[in-house]
Structure formats: structure tokens, C-alpha cells
Design a protein that fits this description.
This protein is an alpha+beta fold and 88 residues long. The chain has one helix at residues 5-30; strands spanning 37-45, 51-55, 65-68, 75-85. It folds into 2 domains: 1-31; 37-85, Ribosomal protein L30/S12 (60s Ribosomal Protein L30, Chain: A), CATH 3.30.1330. The chain has 1 helix and 4 strands; from the N terminus they run αββββ. A 4-stranded antiparallel β-sheet has the order 2-1-4-3, with no helix packed on it. The longest helix is centred in the first third of the chain and has 26 residues, at 5-30.
């Protein structure tokens, strides 16, 4: 097989273009997905040491009095709101 110089250059250009397209497609499919997070509310009793972690509900804010303590029947207060990233 005898190839002239123009044919070899064209083959090289086609190989570079195909390699670039394949690399671009692989980069798009390997892009990290958005992390899945869950927002939690931390409740702490105002009298005893009881702490409870519950799912965040719209309207929760730090300092909100929310529910009764199962240990001493005192009031639970929102002490923190945070997000937890779930593992895949």
C-alpha cells in the first residue's frame, strides 16, 4: 500500500477529529452528578439534655419552639438547621 503525503495528512486529521469527539463525549458522561442532600433540623430540650434530629419543615428557624420533650415534657427548641450529603 502506497499512500501519498496528502492521504496520510487527511487520515491524521480524521483520527484527531474522532479522538477529540470521543474524549468530549466521555467527559460529558463522566461529569460528577449533583450531590443529593437532605436538610435536617436539630431540636434540643430547654431543660434536660435530650436532642432529636428531624427532617426540616418549611418555616423552621433557629430559636423556634417546636414540640414537647419525651423525657421531661418541657419544650423543644430548634438549635440548628443543616444539610447532609447522601452517599450514592
Amino acid at each position: 500500500m502506497n499512500f501519498d503525503q496528502n492521504t496520510l495528512v487527511m487520515i491524521a486529521i480524521v483520527v484527531v477529529i474522532v479522538a477529540t469527539v470521543v474524549k468530549t463525549l466521555l467527559d460529558v458522561y463522566r461529569r460528577p452528578k449533583e450531590p443529593v442532600t437532605v436538610v435536617k433540623t436539630l431540636l434540643k430540650c430547654t431543660k434536660c439534655d435530650y436532642i432529636q434530629e428531624v427532617d426540616y419543615q418549611q418555616g423552621d428557624f433557629i430559636g423556634l419552639l417546636k414540640g414537647k420533650c419525651p423525657k421531661c415534657s418541657s419544650t423543644l427548641k430548634v438549635r440548628g438547621i443543616y444539610a447532609i450529603e447522601l452517599k450514592k
